[in-house]
Design goal:
27% strand, globular
Length: 183
């Protein structure tokens, strides 16, 4: 084995244990916003701004894994109502007028540092290794006032559903063998 050097000496020993953010409503501060213009969405990275979990993603792991605490908000034509709802929640939470500026003159970087309510849930997924794991997801954005007033529903774990295999019966239909066909 090659010598691991200074980086190894400075690394903190990890036991593999980590605390995860419980499902629920949180007041978050947007820490980065990227316009993915070719796909028509904003990628919003956040950290928890208030309460017991304030600064939850402010450690080295959080800085190195922004995708773990990000969400997207599409501004495709068929998503404009949801995008307007997101901007309305930002406006109400920060006394801003982004919703009115979105038609022109809106700069996504103005969202950095602003507060937003996020509702966090978890979903199962199939990893590259073929095992079922869980990941966090932002299931909704709300106003800060709605989070403080607990006006949201804590989502249950979204269970993984394996895709149907080719040749498997469609739910609600019975699979029939070729020899059972009347023609």
């Amino acid at each position: 084995m090659k010598p691991l050097g200074k980086a190894y000496e400075e690394a903190k020993a990890s036991t593999g244990d980590f605390q995860r953010l419980p499902a629920g409503g949180y007041i978050a501060r947007m820490t980065a916003v990227e316009d993915v213009a070719d796909k028509l969405y904003l990628k919003v990275t956040f950290d928890i701004a208030e309460g017991k979990f304030a600064g939850f993603y402010g450690d080295d792991w959080g800085r190195d894994h922004p995708a773990a605490h990000s969400f997207i908000r599409s501004y495709k034509d068929n998503c404009l109502g949801m995008f307007k709802g997101f901007l309305s929640a930002v406006d109400e939470s920060n006394n801003t007028k982004f919703k009115d500026q979105a038609g022109g003159g809106f700069k996504e970087q103005q969202l950095v540092g602003k507060l937003i309510g996020v509702v966090i849930g978890y979903e199962e997924y199939m990893s590259d290794r073929g095992d079922i794991r869980e990941r966090m997801r932002v299931v909704a954005t709300r106003t800060v006032a709605q989070i403080r007033a607990e006006q949201f529903k804590v989502p249950e774990l979204k269970k993984y559903e394996a895709p149907a295999e080719a040749g498997s019966p469609v739910p609600g239909f019975e699979q029939v063998k070729d020899e059972d066909l009347p023609f």
